[in-house]
Amino acid sequence: MAHRSDLIAADIDEYLAQHQRKGLLRFITCGSVDDGKSTLIGRMLYESHMVFEDHLTALAIDSKRVGTQGDDLDFALLLDGLQAEREQGITIDVAYRFFSTDKRTFIVADTPGHEQYTRNMVTGASTADVAVLLVDARKGVLTQTRRHSYLVHLLGIRTAVLAVNKMDLIDYDESVFAAIVADYRSFAAQIGLTDITPIPISALRGDNLVKPSAATPWYRGPSLFEFLEDVDVADRSTDVPFRMPVQLVSRPTSDFRGLMGTVVAGVVRPGDPVRIAPSGRTSTVERVVTMDGDRPAARSGESITITLTDEIDASRGDVICASADPVEVADQFECTVVWMADEALLPGRPYRIKLATRTVGATFGQPKHKVNVNTLEHLAARTLGVNDIGVINVALDRPIPFEPYASSRDLGGFIIIDRETNATLGAGLIHFSLRRSQNVHLQAVEVDRVARRSLNAHGSAMVWLTGLSGSGKSTIANEVERRLYALGVHTYLLDGDNVRHGLNRDLGFTPADRVENIRRVAEVGRLMVDAGLVVIAAFISPYRAERALARSLFDDGEFIEVHVDVPVDVAEQRDPKGLYRKARTGQLANFTGIDSPYEVPEHPDLHIDTTQMSADEAAELIIRSLRERQIIG
Q: Can you give the pTM of this predicted structure?
């Protein structure tokens, strides 16, 4: 069973040839903390003779020094490579390991069991064919077991092993094993995970890993190795229409232009008609090029360069697909999101998503619901917190080529990225495009902003004043509008308090509501600037991301960010509305500067310190900036 071929010494070329002909299985081990995932994989590496002698020597030393098995080998140490993992006896990062048997080669992802590292489990599951779900025989099915099972099914894994581990600690009791299997099958049936093979094991002792164990004479099923070697995970991605996201455009010489990428579905051959998404342009494959020269065909999983018979525009992020059966294109979707960041997802906040090779701007609506992984109940939610799973709509800043995740992991799954830090915040799985993304189109108009500006005899812009309550924003904004009116400039003043009496009267002061407040104001301001007005907005607008969203709605030079700066203690001394006093006494929650943060602008267009400058001087500075930008005369 374990892989130790005599050909390695006798005929290395034949051994390597046999090795190449073996199939590859990717699988993941998951479950709750301390269920024995790392020990299991370490033992599998040991049994398959994939551990070098020097590693075994080091393992024996480490087992005595930091191991948990006394004088025995602690196989988990083969996987727990981080110092923090060894000190705490837990897995934190995803550990990938390769091993081989006579029948198959394997890549296994050992993923962490702690709830706070669920994001790493999602990473490991995203490319796996089979899941090995471990359960401690002493504890049974736990919350994290259910969470990982839900994610396994959500991420498209349809075949699972229920490995009931540590059977040696319950004297290999068949009744305990049967009860755990029954409990798990009851839950799994509710989420649609039906292809389950339960195996009683002891990862530490090796029971039912390589061959049936004498300690479980009542068990008649396969050992874990036998199951993994024989399980059918036939790749059907060649039976579907051709798809290849463009990774890079290659121009090594002036007479060669190739589109490089990895085929994610189907087969492509010279002469095949193809379509470029999202542009819709069509052409014919001229050549399929690899490092080893031209190929008559390329299949799913192969990295290639395609040349086309026509000089058509295609670039990174586009998808080359079968002309007769192209991918869909849309900019709004319903999707499931697995949120992985400590900071909650905020509806309306601008994020980025990366799907295949394309990165675009995105905003999410309010979740339709989130899922209780214990009961599978759909719960109402205004945001998604760390490790939450919810269904939500997403709108993109441009149409993208896609397929539902159920049809294609590669073209239906995306990651969510923070615009400021580029940190990965979550993962999403597309269900379908929203009908309104297909039905709603921009209507061409005859009178545009250029015509309106000409009629007004001045330009239009958004002057955005941001700062703490009591900094003087409203006073300065009012003075700026008064002066512009005297100059004959068409204006409108959007003030934070005034807007909350009408347009935004339904919003509170939670982070999510603050984001939606600014989003609405920015959209209204964009329409007013399009109408040819100079708009002055006075809002605390505490978050950089929302101010960046507001700026992104305007053309270059149309958005002027003014930081009205004042120390919080000075603003509190002014306290014209008595808000700081209420916040200090607990009567006013989520008050900026007290129990809610204010993110200071990093590069404002204008900086006004109202401890050094009067409202009149500040207004004059803003008027001067508008003149310098030739918005007013």
A: 0.73
